[in-house]
Design brief:
heterotrimer; A mainly alpha (197); B mainly alpha (201); C mainly alpha (197); B: 201 residues; Methane Monooxygenase Hydroxylase, Chain G, domain 1; 3 strands; 47% helix; extended; C: 197 residues; mainly alpha; two-stranded antiparallel ribbon; 6 helices; GINS_Psf1 (chain C); coiled coil (chain C); GINS_A (chain C); GINS_bundle-like_dom_sf (chain C); nucleus (chain C)
């Protein structure tokens, strides 16, 4: 999956906005949104919030976790803990990127928050890389990763499944006799994970 | 060819066809009538028992099937003990590309002729040991550019998949909004055209 | 050794990344001839072993047949893989270049491949027309859309370009346009426009 596609999925997340206009309910396939009353908070999908913000038709109420204190705490936990800590949002990176990108005036201390989130991301990515390597080295029949978020899982998408697949292929039919492996086993087409994922 | 040649077992796999063309030393156990021409060093009509030839894997697989094995096989030298020792000592330092372009694929076919399972073990060991290097390479965190040239076919593919994903993710982290781009084939087609023009002029 | 020519076909394909080499009629015929010749050899071996009473020689004829048979299977695999993978590439080209292929690509195709391509294009077009009431163009929105209108720069002297509302634009090299995304996405993919962010 492309990061753009992961972002698209993340944009379904609801978020509070304070509109500066009045409008009735909007009927969408995914559900109804609105009605909009100026200066009365209402919840809309992230993509709509961003769109309205770009047209200066609303203020975005940043998610509760997006504050320096809480993020600092998460960062400390993440440093100390060998495992992944639970993030306040499944899409923290996507929300942070979109909100800090176009609505940084609605988020207090936006620059500090940007730095801390980047730190957390870097710590987690480094952890992820060494975990992947360990999984492969030990290559038990299964491994468990907890508390990973969408974008993080996506970042190891082609390489981890692909590599495990290869190990599986090397291990399988160790004890089979000489056989024509190309013809006796059922077809398995395409391993192109970049297309599948 | 814009395609991912998938690996075996897949009848159409280009990569597997290439890998199964590699040759293994074989000794014929009996006479084979009318096949003398397979041995370039003789003009005899029949192929005599005891002849030693290097045969492609696809043929060896058919000839050593079941009880009616026509040939006795030997391991290619890159899977023999002396080479295995090199890999065990430091797999990362090895130029696997030079060992054989299809070290793993060929190995997977070969291991059926290896009763002791040494080939199986060395394949796994080599792959696991070298994996970190491939991953680091894809994350642009390896300073030695020659490492990439030392990758085997399978490793090179793993690397390029991981590298693409990494590049896209990095672009996403800095870029705003999904930029529409020309299709891959179109870009390459233009590049080639420009190159051809340069050659003419 | 048998199968060398079939292997040469596959080798030729594998050398070309992202493009198709000229269809190799001579080599394809040569491989077909080798298959025929191997078939003859099997028939010969069978008929002679029928005549000979000595079971010993009959036994070893089996080796001859096994080798010839393996050669046929190998050649068939190469032939089929050659054609299959070319068609697979051609299919991708329909999505990348659109329904009209550049002339220098078209010259590399066999007559059958050209026919396959046009039939595939027709089928795809009628399938797209059949979806919903007015049809859906599956070749657009390859990436999640962010805005209805986008700014583009024209990279070539394209000439007249008619929009769906009937208005006509004259596309000159380096001219800039602000257009509905759906109208220009295909031209971006074909390298006529460049998307400006």
């Amino acid at each position: 999956m492309n990061p753009d596609e992961a972002e698209f999925l993340g944009e379904k997340q609801f978020i509070s906005i304070i509109p500066t206009f009045n409008s009735g309910v909007v009927h969408l396939i995914s559900g109804d949104v609105g009605p909009f009353r100026a200066s009365l908070p209402t919840r809309v999908p992230l993509w709509m919030a961003i769109n309205l913000k770009q047209q200066q038709k609303c203020k975005i109420q940043h998610p509760e976790w997006m504050n320096v204190d809480q993020l600092e705490r998460i960062k400390e936990d993440e440093k100390k803990d060998k495992f992944f800590t639970k993030m306040p949002s499944e899409q923290y990176m996507i929300e942070a990127k979109l909100l800090l990108g176009c609505a940084s005036d609605d988020v207090p201390k936006a620059d500090d928050i940007r730095t801390i989130i980047k730190d957390i991301w870097d710590i987690r990515m480094a952890k992820l890389r060494s975990s992947v390597n360990n999984v492969l080295k030990s290559a038990d029949s299964y491994a468990e990763f907890k508390n990973l978020t969408v974008m993080e899982i996506n970042s190891i998408r082609p390489i981890l499944p692909h590599a495990l697949d290869q190990i599986y292929r090397m291990k399988i039919n160790k004890h089979q006799g000489a056989q024509s492996t190309t013809l006796s086993t059922p077809f398995r087409t395409s391993t192109s994970f970049s297309n599948l994922s | 060819m814009a395609l991912h040649p998938s690996y075996a077992p897949n009848f159409y796999s280009i990569e597997d066809i290439l890998a199964t063309q590699e040759r293994i030393p074989c000794k014929f156990l009996g006479n084979v009538p009318d096949m003398g021409h397979l041995n370039p060093s003789t003009l005899e009509k029949d192929l005599a028992a005891g002849t030693v030839l290097e045969l492609p894997v696809w043929l060896v697989q058919e000839l050593s099937l079941g009880r009616h094995s026509i040939v006795a096989t030997e391991l290619p030298k890159i899977y023999k003990e002396s080479y295995r020792e090199i890999l065990k000592a430091d797999a990362c330092a090895v130029d696997l590309h030079k060992f054989n372009l299809y070290f793993y694929e060929l190995g997977k076919h070969i291991k059926h002729f290896d009763r002791k399972g040494d080939v199986h073990d060395i394949l796994l060991h080599t792959f696991k040991t070298r994996f970190r290097q491939i991953m680091d390479l894809a994350d642009h965190s390896v300073s030695d550019p020659t490492v990439q040239e030392r990758l085997e076919t399978l490793e090179a593919r793993l690397f390029s998949d991981a590298y693409d994903a990494r590049t896209k993710l990095n672009a996403w982290l800095v870029e705003s909004g999904a930029i529409l781009e020309a299709a891959n084939m179109v870009v390459n087609h233009k590049k080639r055209k420009r190159m051809n023009l340069d050659i003419i002029m | 050794m048998y199968g060398e020519k079939g292997f040469a076909l596959i080798k030729e394909l594998s050398r070309c990344k992202e493009t198709l080499p000229p269809y190799n009629t001579d080599l394809v015929n040569a491989v077909s001839n080798e298959i025929k010749q191997l078939l003859e050899q099997i028939k010969d071996a069978q008929s002679t072993s029928d005549n000979e009473s000595a079971l010993v020689t009959a036994g070893s004829k089996i080796s001859t047949i096994t080798i010839a048979h393996a050669g046929i299977k190998r050649n068939l695999r190469c032939l089929l893989s050659y054609h299959y993978n070319r068609i697979k590439c051609l299919r991708t080209m329909r999505w990348e270049f659109g329904s009209i292929l550049p002339a220098d690509i078209k010259v590399n195709l066999s007559a059958e491949e050209i026919e396959w391509f046009s039939k595939y294009s027709q089928m795809l077009a009628s399938y797209m027309r059949s979806i919903g009431d007015e049809g859906v163009n599956l070749a657009i929105d390859m990436k999640p859309p962010k805005a209805l209108y986008i700014e583009v720069r024209c990279l070539v002297d394209y000439g007249r370009f008619e929009l769906t509302d009937g208005s006509v634009l004259l596309l000159k090299k380096d001219s800039r346009h602000y257009l509905p995304r759906s109208e220009c996405e295909e031209l971006i993919r074909q390298g006529v426009f460049q998307h400006i962010v």
